[in-house]
Amino acid sequence: xxxxxxxxxxxxxxxxxxxxxxxxxxxxxxxxxxxxxxxxxxxxxxxxxxxxxxxxxxxxxxxxxxxxxxxxxxxxxxxxxxxxxxxxxxxxxxxxxxxxxxxxxxxxxxxxxxxxxxxxxxxxxxxxxxxxxxxxxxxxxxxxxxxxxxxxxxxxxxxxxxxxxxxxxxxxxxxxxxxxxxxxxxxxxxxxxxxxxxxxxxxxxxxxxxxxxxxxxxxxxxxxxxxxxxxxxxxxxxxxxxxxxxxxxxxxxxxxxxxxxxxxxxxxxxxxxxxxxxxxxxxxxxxxxxxxxxxxxxxxxxxxxxxxxxxxx
Length: 313
Hints:
The protein has two domains: 8-101; 104-310, no CATH class. The chain is 16% helix and 26% strand. It contains five helices and 13 strands. It has helices at 31-40, 60-70, 87-101, 264-273, 303-306, and strands spanning 8-14, 22-27, 50-57, 82-83, 112-114, 119-123, 129-134, 144-150, 157-163, 198-204, 209-216, 221-229, 232-238. The strands form three sheets. The protein has a five-stranded mixed beta sheet, covered by helices on one side. Strands 3-1-2-4 form a four-stranded antiparallel beta sheet, with helices on both faces. Strand 11 and strand 12 form a beta hairpin. Helix 2 (60-70) crosses helix 3 (87-101). It starts with 7 loop residues before the first strand and ends in a 7-residue tail after the last helix.
């Protein structure tokens, strides 16, 4: 079995001694670790860097390269990662870069298997739909649509975190204990930097398939990426721009749909996915311990379990 997949970060740094510049780079560690390393190294910078933004992604190198490409006209030295841009402009450029090179197009046509230890971060676009497809029973003759989710802003993040222990995962829709808690509320070790606002926490079980769809041409065509769970999976959804329902004033959460009917191409792809061969793994959504199944959500984990970069090195 291949090594587990990990997320990385693309960061925006500022320095009080370089007020007209921002530094944009990537790291597989915490952005704060990289910022500290830059100050303590041989860069000759007289003051510490401050992390003003970090973007989590499964494709940090591609995003970094795209950001540098988009900002090439304000890059004083092509050999250095400094740019004459405001922080707000740098952040919006990161969002555009992630949507361009780390979104649905960045996953190939093969079914992506999510295994224990995998950490995936999917950059969603507003209106993207996600269908959870599963066999409701071990001997069920047909797969069914279990749930449907929707992204509400460009840059929303969907995190898939594989785990072989069902006690570690929990979901709101399944009314699990601890299902409403944010598993990673902070993205620094000092717990000063809050994570993106969470708008959904769900769990997937072995055998579930997650179909990610984006329609084009007035719904006549669509792009697709498919993820199959080989183990249990903790799903969290985070909003880039928190949107609110106009009538109620409540936040638009992952499971809230704002359309009446799915586009025609989406319907065709989902119908085809329901006919895919059976997955190689399966587990019940509501396991009965008396039948030998382990309990769900009875062993919540600390944030560093889900975001391993938080562990002290």
